[in-house]
């Protein structure tokens, strides 16, 4: 392999390794926060309902509590779906990079397949980003509604 191609190959190989690392990192961090906070919000709602059922607390704004719980639940569900779309995006990016590495090695490649992978990467990235934004917004909306509900208790 020529020196120029070796440099390009090394750069793409490094990019592939970084993509794999980003995949693992992205799966762990923000999603963990969204799931934890939304799960805690749902737990607080269930505890509030348990106290209400036992007659220890009374409240007038049950709709706020219900909407807050639904926001937390949908935040968790959209986060789970974004995990899957994020996986697809990174999987197609790995396939794209492998074709690029083969091209640098001088092997015959299927350019149409590479373009298809690139389109799928972009598509799943858009979906994943939208779902992540929706999860974050729903989590914050659920928190705000839960805070308003608790404020109205006092």
Q: Your description of this structure?
A:
Keywords: Membrane, Transmembrane, Transmembrane helix. The chain is mostly helical and 154 residues long. It has one domain. Helices cover 90% and strands 0% of the residues. α1 packs antiparallel against α2, α1 runs parallel beside α3 and α2 packs antiparallel against α3. It is rod-shaped.
Outline:
The chain is mostly helical and 154 residues long.
Mean pLDDT: 89
Cα-based radius of gyration, to the nearest Å: 23 Å
Please give the alpha-carbon distance between the first and last residues: 74 Å
**Tell me about the biggest sheet?**
none
Strands, helices and their partners?
Blueprint: H1 3-53, H2 62-105, H3 111-153
Helix pairs in contact: 1-2, 1-3, 2-3
What keywords describe this structure?
3 helices, mainly alpha, 154 residues, single chain, rod-shaped
């Amino acid at each position: 392999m020529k020196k120029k191609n070796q440099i390009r190959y090394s750069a793409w190989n490094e990019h592939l390794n970084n993509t794999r690392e980003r995949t693992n990192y992205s799966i762990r961090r923000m999603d963990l926060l969204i799931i934890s906070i939304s799960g805690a919000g749902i737990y607080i709602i269930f505890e509030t309902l348990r106290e209400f059922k036992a007659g220890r607390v009374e409240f007038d704004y049950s709709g706020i509590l219900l909407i807050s719980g639904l926001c937390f639940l949908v935040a968790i569900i959209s986060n789970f779906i974004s995990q899957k779309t994020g996986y697809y995006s990174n999987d197609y990016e790995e396939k794209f990079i492998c074709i690029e590495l083969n091209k640098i090695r001088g092997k015959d490649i299927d350019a149409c397949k590479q373009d298809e992978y690139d389109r799928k990467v972009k598509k799943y990235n858009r979906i994943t980003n939208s779902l992540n934004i929706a999860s974050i917004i729903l989590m914050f909306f659920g928190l705000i509604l839960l805070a308003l509900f608790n404020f109205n208790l006092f």
